[in-house]
Amino acid sequence: MTVVCVPDPGAVGLLGAVPDGVEVIVWDGRGTPPAGVERTEFWVPKVEDEGDLPAVFAAMPELKVMQLTSAGVENLVGQIPVRVTLCTARGVHGPSVAELVLLFILASQRRLPHFQDAQRAGQWDLVEGDDLGGKRVLIIGAGNLGDETARRLRSFDAVPILVGRGARDGVRARSELSDLLPTADIVVLTLPLTTESKGMVDAAFLARMPDHALLINVARGPIVDTAALLTELTSGRLRAALDVFDPEPLPEGHPLWSAPNVIITPHTAGHVRQAGPRAFALVNAQLRRFMTGENLLNVIAGDY
């Protein structure tokens, strides 16, 4: 009997029918482990909250697969035993994240925050917006999130330019950013947080962006130097739309809350009704691959 551990009773329903020979137990990785956890071979932790990892791994000596329902693994690097294969949910959240990027862009370009303020004040205050046709959009992060975003932008006649660690067909290299940034109307961050990307968007990076350009971060907060961004926002030179922050959650009274030229959402890009069903459809497929000895998808190996 193969034991699968999921984080809560709701996940049992989302997982759906499992193959014969599978036993599903529930544990969120905290407190006293329930009976049977020691036989777990396939673990699905709570999204972006894996609990006390050393304690969990000690409680699961037979664990072989750790299947996430999120894509980022920066908090797990160096913590996974060699015996455990770590798999992400790459591809699950791409559509919803890309939709939020488009929402940010359209809201900012068409001055929606201005009109909302005018509506609350009961004022008919007409200002000129801008469209997306011909706009150059640098998408830094050429994985699934970047691809999904680029595909949607093309339908608005924008010009997406994907940027990855290295150049390949259809993708420019990060080493070219110094030349690319001055040509960008919009810069979208969809890359993972790594030692290389942490603090990448600093004062020098922002200074290369043209006046009135828009920075969008749906990746991870620490990729952006918050103080440097605040300087550009308060001067009125740049605009921003942020779903992730450093620190996060964004504390009460933080200067970003009252900064001009910024749209803020509370890490909501993947928080849509179909996220759970999509994530656990992947989990179910991965479990079946595991049971039949097929290669698993989205395996994290080597450098991240």
TrEMBL record:
Instruction: Enumerate the InterPro entries for this protein.
Output: D-isomer_DH_NAD-bd, NAD(P)-bd_dom_sf
**What CDD domains does the annotation carry?**
2-Hacid_dh_7
**Superkingdom assignment:** Bacteria
UniProt cross-references to Pfam families, sorted A to Z: 2-Hacid_dh_C
**An annotated Gene Ontology molecular function:** oxidoreductase activity
Instruction: Specify whether NAD is a keyword of the entry.
Output: yes
Q: Where is the D-isomer specific 2-hydroxyacid dehydrogenase NAD-binding domain?
A: 104-269
Report whether Oxidoreductase shows up as a keyword of the record: yes
- TM annotation in the entry: none
Which controlled-vocabulary keywords does the entry list? NAD, Oxidoreductase
Q: What is this protein called?
A: Phosphoglycerate dehydrogenase
Q: Which organism is it from?
A: Nakamurella panacisegetis
Q: What is the lineage of its organism?
A: Bacteria, Bacillati, Actinomycetota, Actinomycetes, Nakamurellales
